[in-house]
Every structure is written in structure tokens, then in C-alpha cells.
Amino acid sequence: MRSINGEQDSGESPPDDDVVDLGAGPDELGPAMNRHRSRLAAVAAFLALFHLVFVVAKLLGPASGPAASSDTPIWSLVVRSAVAALTFALLRSPLPLSRRQVRFADGVLFGFEMLVLLTAQYLSTVDLIDRRDLVDAVAVQKNGVIRALFLMVCYGVVIPRTPAEAARGAMTIAAALILCHGMVLHHADTLHLDRDDLANHQIVMANALFLIMGGAIATLAAWLLQGRHGSDDGPGRIGPYRLLRKLAAGGTGDVYLAEHEVLERPCALKLLRHGGIETADRFEREMRAAASLSHPNLIAIFDGGHTANGTPFFAMEYLPGLSVADLVRDGGPLPAARAVYLGRQVCAALAELDRAGFIHRDVSPANVFVSCLTGAGDVAKLLDFGSVGGPAAGADHAPAADGGIAGTPEYVAPEQAVAGAPIDGRADLYALGALLHFMVTGAPPFPRATAADALRAHLEAPLPPLRDRGADVPADVEAVIRRCLAKRPIDRYPDAHAVAMALASCTCAGAWDAPRAESWWRSRSAASTTAHG
Q: Edge-to-edge strands of the sheet including 321-323?
């Protein structure tokens, strides 16, 4: 048996870490980036207040002596507080910021903090050394280390990031301040100061050690939060679900066989693992779209949410069976009657999507799962709503599978291959025709070496007779497939109901039913048991 997305059951134990990579992207914000924006705003507000408190303390403190000289200058605190306050105001404003703009604000906030900190550190320390005020020079350097460690925590822990991203940021902060202190050390050496008084090299080495340790701790904290899902989730557990084994690893998420700890109900739990913000948004869009639908031929999602660190997941029904891709790969092309039987169920799923205002846009053999349920035999389930479009999707910016085309290139409608072309539910009917073609011939309508060639064939190439593929397909079934695969949407069936009626009227429609399907699955199970001893 394979997993619900048609991939081979890997049988692996759940990993100790599942992270969401908060990368940048040019498109509008989704739920994942909105959380990043709110966390960044909180950090900006805290930094503004933090610097403002030190400004007030310096203004009210003595004008000379250690208290006045052992901290950063007032000008640097004022400038940093102003920039942080402006960043906070921007992030909390109702302005529609893009991902790129939020990430730019992120870089400006922390980059400017470090730039002013380094400038103040160098100028203040060099001035104190020139005046032979060595004790206060050491104090200024120590204060710089403390402030840098504070920035590391804000960057790598308060704002959720991948361990790699946290490590890059924290170690960059550490390296910059170590370099600054090295330049100060070089300046001190040129003055030929008494090293017993200043202990130049020992101080720089100690500061460097603290900074490197701080970067390592920030990275470790990010790994623990991201990899182990914070304090509420741990290895082998996501919220109330206990992960039993990995079923499959896909491009955007890993699928596990899981069990609800209270209900003891098995389910398939999909957890985002790889990708950036765009991938996270696609994942959450898939979750919301599928959860809003209820139909026997659509995969049922009954729970979803985020781990403690914001990684999205959702729980769906666990189904034994095979995808259409695996079914054909393992046993060859299907009899026309079975293809009609499964095709009518996919029509029912598409009709429900159309009623709800969705366009699936990725109907393909990998996304149609054939399950063996007691008393039902072949039950087709349409999966994967990550590329969903249509009015109910709220926007038409589903992620592209290839070169800006939403869907699988071998199964997309011609209009999906044209930038800016209007797309409606008839695009899914084209994909249904391509799916039926694959079922009865074992190949897509236009098998090509590259995705670009496949898209060009959808636009221009005529469909060869099915007999050229060695398929013995009744003429009425081939006629349905051909009309679904018409180049112009107006030449196709008007909706999925019409396709279902056309399939039901085929002469072979009654030659495959639930009892025959159940018998096929029983014989397959027996053969598998015999083969495995």
C-alpha cells in the first residue's frame, strides 16, 4: 500500500526536527509572513523603548565620570530609538506590505542597529584610549558585547527563523563586533600602552569568546524551537497527535501516519517541512480550501493548526490504497469500464469544487487516490488543493509548478499555459480528459521530454487516435475524452455534471461496479500476501 498522496510508504520513524524556512518572496503576505511581521513589530517597539530608557538615564545622570563615559553616546541611542520607532509604526500600519518589503524592514532594523553600535563602539573606545581612560574603554567594549548578545536573541529567537538563518545572522553580528574590537586593539597597540593596564589581547579574546558562544546559543535556541516545535510539541508528537511513522515526503510537506492521543483515531498528518514563505502560504491555502469542502470524493480534513513555532499542519483521513499513477504503473492501463467508473467519481468531486467556487487546477494521476473501502471497492478521492484558484480561493496567485504554470505540465489546460488567460472550471475538465487518457493508455495525451514542450503540445498539437497508443478503447469513451481535451474551453463540456452524464451513457459504464472493484482489491491483497510469504 502507498500513502494518501500516492507515494510509497517509507516506513520511517518521525524525525526530531521539522522546520519552516521563513524565506522571502515578492508576492503579497500570507498567514506565515503576517506572523513574521507582527513579531518584528514587537521587537522594533521593544528596541525603541530600550534605547529611549538609556537616553533618559544618561540625560538625568552625571555629566562626567564613569556613568557618562561607559555607555554608548546619546546620539547613537536617539538615532536607534527613532529608526526602531519608525519601523514599528510602518509594520503596525494598515499599509499592505509585500514579503520583500517586510524582509527589507527586517534587514534595515537589525542592520542599522549594528551599524550604529559598531560606529559608537569604535569612536567612543578610541576616544577613551586616546585620553588614557582605559577602565571606561573596557566598560564600553563590554557594554557592546551585551548589546550584541541582546540583538542575537531578538534576531534568532524572538523572531522565528530556521537554525541556518539564525546562525548566519547571529554569527554576522558576532564577527562584526569582533572585527571592530580588533581595530580598536590595533589602535591601542600603536600608542604603545602598558599591556598590564589594558590587557588588550586578553580582553578582545574574551569578548570574542562570549560573542561566539552567544551566536551558538541563539542558533541552538532556534533549532530547539523550530526543530522540536517549541515547548508544546516534541519528537514524535504534534499537538494532540502522536506520529507513528512517515508515509511520504513531498515537495512541500511530509505526511505521517498519526493517531489522536485521546480518540485513538488514525489519521494522515501533513506537516510543512521545506520551502519559504510562499510554500507556507500555499500549504495553508490548501488546508483552508480542503477544510471548507465536504464530499465523499474529496479528501476529508478534520483538524489543522500550527505548532508552537508557527509551522502549519493538518490532519486528514487515512486511506489505504493507491494513486491512479501507481495503479497504472503497477498494473498497466485500466479497462475502459474501470476508467469510466473512477472518472464519474472525479466528476462528482469537480462538481462540488465548482459549486463552492474553486478551480482545482492540478487534476492529475498523482492527485487522484483510489481507496479500497469495505463494501465500496474503488473510491476515488481528489487530493492536493495547493494550486487551487477561483473566486472562493480569494486570489488567483496559486504557486506555480513549473515556470509560472499552476499544475502538472502534462495535465494542464491550454489556457493555463498562456499568461493572463482567463481560467474557469473547464480547465479542470481538460485535466479530467487527460486523466482519463492516462487511465486507458498509460500515458498523458502529449508525452514530451520537457515541460515546455508539453505545454506547447497542449496549445498546438492534435490528439492522436487512442489506438495509436495500443489502447482498445470504445468509441464512445474516446469521444468523451476528446471533447474534454478540446483546445478551446467553449468546445468542451459545460461542466462536470455533463461529463458525468456522458460517461454514464457509455456502453461499458455498467461493466465495472463496487462488487467487482472489491473483488479486485481482495485478489490484489491475496497476491501481495503470497508474494511476501
A: 321-323, 368-373, 377-382
User: Which three cell numbers mark 26?
Assistant: 515578492
- Say how far residue 95 (Cα) sits from the centre of its chain: 24
**CA–CA distance, 144 with 139 (Å, rounded to integer):** 9
**Strand, helix or coil for residue 267:** strand
pLDDT, tens only, 326-345:
999 988 999 999 999 999 99
Instruction: Give me the residues paired with residue 267 across strands.
Output: 258
Supply 244's cell numbers.
507513528
CA angle 504, 505, 510 (to 5 degrees): 60
| Rounded CA separation 497/128 (Å) | 83
Residue carrying the nine cell digits 564613569: 66
Rg (CA), the chain: 31
Which among 178, 143, 151 has a CA at the least distance from the CA of 71? 143
Question: Exposed e or buried b for every residue in 332-347, given b needs 16+ CB within 10 A?
Answer: ebbbbbbbbbbbbbbb
Q: Which residue type does 392 have?
A: A
What are the residues facing 268 on neighbouring strands? 257, 316
Tell me which H or E stretch contains 31. Answer: helix 31-60
Per the residue annotation, which of 136, 254, 362, 378 is the catalytic one? 362
* pLDDT tens digits, one per residue of 124-160: 888 887 777 777 777 787 888 888 888 888 887 787 6
* Residue 136 bears catalytic tag: no
> Pairing relation of β-strands 237-238 and 321-323?
unpaired
Helix (H) / strand (E) element for 370: namely strand 368-373
